[in-house]
Amino acid sequence: RHDGAGNKYMKLKYRAMMMPWAGGAASLVASGLLIEYRFDDGSGTTLTDYIGGFNGTLGTGAADRPDWVAAGLDFVPANADVVINTTFADTDVLGAITICVVTQLDTGAAFRAFIGKCLTNGGSNNPFDFRTSNAATPLLTLIRANGSGGIVREYAGQATTLGAYRMYSVVCSDGLVQTAPTFYVGASAQAGSLVGGGNQNGAVTGSSASLRIGRRPDGAVQMDRIIAYILIYSRALSASEIAQNYTTLQSRLAPRGITLP
Description:
- The protein is mainly β.
- It is 9% helix and 32% strand.
- It has helices spanning 10-18, 239-253; strands at residues 33-37, 46-47, 56-58, 67-69, 72-74, 82-84, 97-104, 113-117, 128-132, 139-146, 151-159, 165-172, 182-185, 188-191, 193-194, 211-213, 226-233.
- The radius of gyration is 18 Å and the shape is globular.
């Protein structure tokens, strides 16, 4: 394609998309980074992964697509999601992992989906499901499971903040369902607390599910507003590395009108 002066620009745009961030000196932690969704495509039906090529498709149809807004993707439409259909190796997320999400939640009293690779609830909630609880002020929640043994453990962390942007992260130090994760709001850490019973032990197992943003495949857990950034690592980040990412994203996202306190 050409602009009005006859200059080709699509190749230049593609190259710019795949280049490292050039908006200042601040940098994300690079070691172990599997996926980086910047949510800056702005239009179309593709969510670009700047690291591993795991691009996502917006919705299964027009009615299921989240809306592009200045801040990222708005998941207001019912059943809106992003599905990553390209092959994403379970082996990369069965052990230690870190997930960081910049989002704005608007309402509580319902489960809110960030990102997961799972089929449904319980023993099929493997290898991971990062979401909130259904409290009036939702709590950060992570579920990991051993699908072959029906072993599942759910952990809760800090309360989310409704109506404001925050960076929420979860860090798992190994691939055992019985090992509690650490949750972060910004750079503030809290050890995860076991929800309900669950005294079985086992290793996290993979599943045939696609990586999915904003909605669990069974539709029981859905996002309600905006997601602006997602990072996935194949290792456990330290507290200082979480703080580095937080500082970097404060700077990167400010031009989009996003303030991370």
